[in-house]
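Hey all, sorry for the wall of text incoming. These are the five entities for the joint prediction.
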Amino acid sequence: MTDLPTSPFPALLVGLPILVATLSLFFRPRGKAVVGLMGCLLTGGLGLIALVEVMQQGTVIHILGGWDPPLGILLRMDSLAAVFIGMTAVVGVFISLYAWWFFRAREATNGGFPLFWPLWLFLWAGLNGLFLSNDLFNLFVTIEVIGMSAVALAVLSGKTAAQIAGLRYLLAAITGSMAYLFGVALIYGSTGTLDLGLLRQVLEPGATTTFALLVITLGLMIKMAGFPFHFWLPPAHSSALAPVSALLSALVVKGAFYILLRLWMEVFGVSITFSAGQLIGLAGAIAVIWGSWQAFMQTSLKLIVAHSSVAQLGYLLMIFPLLILAPGVAAGSADWLSPAWTAGVYQVMAHAFAKASFFLSAGIIIMALGHDHKGSLRDLASRMPMTVMAIGIAGVSLIGLPPSGGFFAKWMLLKGIFLSGQWWWAPVVLAGSFLTAGYVFMLLRLAFATAREKEPFRPVPKGLEVCALLLALGSFLIVLPAEYLIQFLESSEAFGSGIQSIMEGGTYGND
Amino acid sequence: MSVLIDLLLAILTVYLALQCLLAQRLSQSVFLFFAFGLALALAWVRLGAVDVAITEAAIAAGFMGVLFLDALRDFSPAVSENQEDLKAVQNPPSKNATKSLLLPRLALGLGLGLFLLIALEAVWKTPDGGGLTAAAVALLPESGVEHPVTAVLLNFRAYDTWLEIGVILLGLLAIYAAGGINLYRKPGVAAKDPLLRQVILFSTPVLFLFGAFLLYFGKTGPGGAFQAAVLWGAIGIMLHLGGWPVFAVLPRWLGQLILTLGLGFFLVLGFLFMARGDALFEYPPAYAGILILIVETLAAISIAAALTTIYANINQMQEEPKQNESTT
Amino acid sequence: METTSLLPLLILGSSLIPGVLILLLREDQSALRSFLNLFGAVAKVSLIAWVFAGYLRGEEYTFIFRLAPQLTFALQVDQLGLFFATLSSVLWLVTTLYAIGYLEGGQHRRRFFAFFSLCITASTGIALSGNVVTFFIFYEFLTLATYPLVVHLGTDKAVNAGRTYLWYTIGGGTVLFLGVVGLYVLAGPVYFGQTEIIASLISENAPQLTILFFVFLAGLGVKAAIFPLHSWLPISMVAPAPVSALLHAVAVVKAGAFGIIRLVYDVYGIGVAEQMNLLTPLAVLAAFTILYGSIRALFQDDFKKRLAYSTVSQVSYIALGVAIPGVLASAGAIVHLVHQGIMKITMFFAAGSVAETYGHYKISELNGIGRRMPLTMGAFTTAVFGMIGLPPIAGFVSKWYLGLGAVEAGSYWVVLVLLGSSALNAAYFLPIVYRAWFCEPDHERVSRIRSGRLETRALLLIPVVVTGLFSLAAGVFAALAGSPLSIAREIAEKFYLL
Amino acid sequence: METYQIYILTSAVLFVIGMGGVFMARHFIKKIIATIIMGGGVFLCFVSFAQRDALTFADPVPHALVITGIVVAVASAAFALALARRIYQLTGEESFTNDK
Amino acid sequence: MIWFLTIVLPLLAAILNAFLPTGRRGSGLIFVIATLPALWLGLAEVSGVTAQWFLLEGHFSLDTPRRILLLLTGILWAAAGLFSGSYLKDDARRGEFSFYFGATMAGNFGLLISAEVASFYTFFALMTFASYGLVIYSRTPSARRAARIYLVMAIFGELFLITALYLAVQSAGSMLLADIPPALAQAPNGPFIFLLGLIGFGVKVGAVPLYFWLPLAHPAAPAPASAVLSGAMIKAGLVGWMHLAPVGLVEWPSLSLLMVSLGFTATLGAAIIGMVQVDPKTNLAYSSISQMGVMTVLLGIGLYGGIPAVMLLPAIALYAFNHGTAKALLFLGTALPAKVGGSWRLLMWAGLGIGVLAIAGAPLTGGLWTKYLVKTFLGETTLPGGQTFLLLLTLSAVTTTLLLSRFLHLLHRIKAPSKNVAPPFFLPWILLLLAGGWWTMSPALLPPELMNYITKGKGIMAFFWNRLTNWDALWPITLGVVLMVLSLRFATFNWWPTKKPLLPPGDLLHIILRAGDPVAKLLRKGISLLDSAMKSLLSPEKIFYRLSDDKRTSKISASAETLLRRWEFVGIGFFIFFLTLFILLR
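and here's what came out:
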């Protein structure tokens, strides 16, 4: 563990945003925005530099306080974390730029929401911390930072609906965290360590481990709005301010997924069964169908987009069954692991870009029209072609049409599905695409329709539209470096690994 | 004998928790919550976790309790009945509605029961992992403090603690956000009961000293930044209650400085040493003790300020006129 | 495979770049827009001609970009692809002219022309794709690029048509996606022409291959408008005439048909397909579609709708030809790709011109239109006879090869289908011709929307005459070296030599 | 039966009670209290292990974790309370009414 | 070059004349010029050419029978073209007429000079569809009806035709028409292919039972068009048959008998039906059917073997030649009685008489010649029933005479102009009379060996002055004329209809329509039912739209989502998920 190169970046990635956030509190609203934006650009730049650093040096670590685990905390930045951080950086920078124009445009009426900036920086720090963390308890703290700042951002608009949704979100988040923490407590009790690397070596299968796995999984499922627990997501995401919605759906939910994936892959391998993976996959599959269908049935733009997040997160869960090898399958022969991992990573990235763009576009529309009932989208294509373009491109990525990132992810997912022989997931992937196409094109259809009556239309800063469009394009551009990226990711320990399923009933309760 | 006490305490805790949630009146709930917190604090003491006990009593039971109490003034002013009961009286639910509620509740109960059984089995069968006591003991001398909990908090796992201070500040920001208010609105003035003011005036220095003691003592024994901070925070709250809105008097920049000092200094210090080539939050063993003390003190001040401000802000919400819906 | 050339990319760029640039122009910069459009179109035609010449000299043009292991974006040039690309680019040039004339003074022209260019980019991309996944990429790209064109008018009808259009095409795309992934999983990256890969799998994975074939077919069948996946086509008739023309003649339906050709000949290989008995169902479906489309066409009064159902019917000729083993039928299928294109585009141009000049949209309004627009309707009539399969027009040639191929293969029922279709073609097309030339105009209804010296705007007239002449020439000079037929024959012969 | 065992069982019970409260309680405040009870259960679990693993003194790490945890939980709860009060002020609602 | 000019010139003429304004002279001349290459080819032996660029490789060449027919066709088109030039000079739609006329001409020439399937079919189709414009030319309701039936039948024929060609080409392995008869003789499905061709071309020929469009369509066209329709174009079908028939190579008794019997049925039946018509052109149309029947018989006996193709086919062509010129003369003549007055009428009647006699086969006309050919071959054939055929042939001479006398009688009823005038188109008519007469007399058209075969080497003059032949030819005609005169003289026998034909023209058509009407209705209903069923049922998107646009659907899904958003249900979900996962992890 300690033989890996040390780098200051992990510490900076968490420290700097919070420092800037703290600093920004001293400024007046306008200054807060300036400092916040600067901080965002700085953090984004830092994230990208860190990504490059990892590309050059391989996995880097930062031993906080100089205390080795298990007593101390280790920040570890492997290629997987680096990619997530890099993604957060890019998406974050664009959303920040958008937010800058967005809030400036409404400064006069709403005061410009200066709190956005420190909260967003806190959120960013939390995300970076989460991706870097190698410690179960520290993960808890980071998800709490993320959770609180996310809810705070979600209620920032001050609207009643947002606040009710925010409270629901917050309660769900707390419940999820507590469940997670319960699992952490049990793990600590049974192993005496919190460090993921050590845990992998010392964790023994047994009733406690299984239970800990259960509550941790469920807790994280709640936080990432996995299928039966998606209840908080659509209202919260849809009622927030546009840049916030973008942040929440593009980045925040991914955090919980990231932990869940890492814990399953790196820590709890000893007690995971093939069929458990199937259940997670099933939850994902239902989420895909249900979320897409619900999105299809919604009448307001942001609700559509929010429900769509539920579905898109479902795809993420669907890689779990592929990563667990049925009893008797040798890890060496499982050639579907790499595609499945690629699918997961790409789905995260593609969704981050596309959904961010989608929400930002929704924000533009709301700014222009004053509301986002889908009926009012009529004739938008001629009034705001760039925004419609952004929606179209982002939507295409969500659907998974080539050559978007979403396509790449679905390609890899399907490939994994076929290679592993778990063909029953394939129809779900397709049905999901199909339904997604349903709502995406419902929007476009309206955008191209001629307006029945001319609604008042406020002009929107061009910068907003450019940000949304660039993000949408980003969801396509991520495919270009795919080969290199996969190669890079393969240097991470987790990437491409699978869990050997324990034999049914073999090891449970034999203590 | 001690087992019996523990058993009784355990049963009491569970009972209080149950009652707290089952209580018909909200005020009952809140009081039971106080009691629950205290019972839990007792349990901490029984388990040898005095630091935790103090924190629990001060923050979880004390601070939260005060906030809940304060909230009581808000909710359902006339009758403290549960909302659903009130509504049930106002418009009697149809048979279907009750039925539709009953079944899910039964299912929930069943689920909870099974969950409990499984959870009990799991905790019961937890293998002995050994903990980190030995490691902590071994490294304690290098940490610069003598109290192991403080060592863990402010040195071994300083990162967590730093983040946690951040969470408190974040909580404050979040509450601002929840209020839909701007950061720069100063807390208003509360009631002015002369007797109360006297009591508050009297107790302020006492609390301050006790807090300082706890803070300093934290180096060697139970106590530390959080505990001190709660006491100092209590001062702020009481002053606020007494009509001396602390943060209203201070210049804005000062208030902000106080709020952010703990977090900021902690981090800047960490960065300074990092610039030297060390890791973040790595203190040279020689100066560790004093640095930790400074950090702790500043953290305590900031936390106290944050708690005060939180209280003040939450408290103030009710007085604020219904804000015009900001159209987004 | 080793040589990499940017020329294929340049061919794509010749329409992609104008498309993007047009999007950046202002709505009122119509001269510049037209210039860009035409420049791109001409550039594309010349580039393709250049590449074609190079190809005939034996040069290889391949562009490869690896996205991931086993996932390659590959453009390569082969005869079939060039054949299709030539068709696309030439008709694009013509249609661009037509569209400039058609949309003169219309709304949203920037958007229209931009997507128009993107659409042809996709079409050329399909033609030049070197492997299945690249094909799929452009196949879907095409769906998207055509959507704004279909809903261009923005009326409720148009928008609803767009909805149906998308449901079908996206559905087809999704299914195709499944097939593509399945193929990759089973056989690895399959480049077009590497039929030996599938052939080597046939002994072990026959059932999977069979299923995959039909999955592919279902995916491609949507665009090729094979029954029961054809409904989108008549509905998307609400689009402006140049779009319908391009959609029906070149871009969309042809993409499907072209895909089927690729699937059977270049992926599975005709030998394997025949050996596994995959072709009979395709033949039956195609045959049914041919008759079905014709019957439906009988009942349409909307001019373009009738043409659309006719397309449903006609495009299936290609599938039918593919499904009949034998050089002749294959050549017929491949050449029909072009012949149907030029004939149908002529018809749509004519329909569009009539609608644009006199406001007639229904067949019942067309009485005597031949007198007023003799050149337009003359071209239309030529195309009609071609469709029926009368010589010496292009349609005859393909039908002749198909019929002969069917006889050669012993599939006499196919001949019956062809005959039935011819009869039905006559039954629904000749009334139009009859009305146009032999009925007296209802005088009170005749009012010309735009007046001018010519029978209609020059830009509407020239394309229709040109394509009309094309369809005549493609038949009359069919035996000439370099004619569509001769190329198609060469392609088909290659398929059977492999 | 040792002390920690009693408390460890208690911790599970408290967690379950808290969870039940989160799901079943109607009033915002009760839900918030329920989350704190949940947290209490979890912290009790930690501290019980600390006591189990005690040498000369109890395991300090869980203590530190719990202190951190409590503060975090309280911060969240305070935030939740603020939100709840705000909602009540704006709408007069004391519980989720399940409309969107 | 000349081969292409044969086709291109008529097309050019068509376009040129289409732009010639009404009332301008010269269109007739243009048409005549357009026929010159064809006439040249008909007279001079020009070796064939190959046009590799044309269609599926075009080959153009002629053999004797087709040269004869080309000559006939050239003459007829020249005469009809010249005729039309003045006949329709002031017609408002002359341009249109000329266009179709020229196009038809091109088709007619083209199909005769084509030596391979594709171009043959091309020009056949061109002729068929272009002549639609001629049939519908007058735009009267009856013309429209006739045109419609013509078109339907034409397409019907084309379908059989193309099938026959597919099969024939496939079994021949070559597109050359010359390769087809041997291939059919070899192929096991040869008779079937020929039968298809028989039906396909039979439509054009007007063979029983496919003739019914003919009495409607031919009279509907203006006189010059009728002339070429009945004189030249009708022979295109015959050419088609000749291309397919493996004469002398096979012994197909049933097909042979079928053709012979159908031919005689046409010969006699059509004559009888034609007699009871009241329109002279209809009468002539039936006569055409009747005469084509004779040719059918001739070809039919060829299929029984024994008679070499080089003998039989020129003979048929010559028969066609005679009939074509005479029939064209008569058809053009129908336009005359109303316009020709005074002494010119004498000439007119003489010409018409010659035409009638030629068809009937009177001595000194080509009719005798050709009838003798028929008789010879009927006598030679080994087909059972040869004597009966001879009898029937003789009988047909009687009926033909009756039919054509009836034609003259019908013309006679037309009121003549009182002045002594001849219309400008009288001249072309006379020219045709001369040309037809002269070429009929000439033996040069026949190959010498056939000539020898017929005349038993005695030379042509011996044939013409054979008393027996003349007598054999003369008595049926005399009988017919006598019968006609008698029936007109004596009122008791005069049951000739005057206003309404006893049998409506296109006799069989009415039966078919009567019988077919309910079937057609049923069919249409069925198809439209099918159509609507397909419209509603087979569009999955419609079902989906109905589902997704339904208020209830959105309500249900919204309430389901609301349910999932309730904390209780979240809890239930939580525990279900928990327990399932728990069980799965054990």
